[in-house]
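[job 4471] stage=fold_predict status=RUNNING
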Amino acid sequence: MEHQEVMQRAAARRAVNDRVKGLIAEGLGLPIDPMLIDDDQPLFGRGLELDSLDTLEIVSLIDENFGVYITDDDKYVFGSINTIADFIEQARTP
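[job 4471] inference complete, writing structure tokens
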């Protein structure tokens, strides 16, 4: 893989992560700058302290903005921004 291709893929991944952070912060009305959310920070518990109602909103936000639906079988996706981004990229890869 060429250096330029690696840089493009990294930039595309950063864009997905940043967009997910923005959607979650804005969509859930969190009083935090989205860029202060760490990519590996837990979304529930001691992380962002989200709850089960927030899960439904995140499912809706991801579906509306990325065309990717998260099912009950995909609960692991809610671990962090990175796990959501991984799921989105995997679902969008042919």
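[job 4471] summary: Residues 30 and 58 are 13 Å apart (CA to CA).
[job 4471] exit 0
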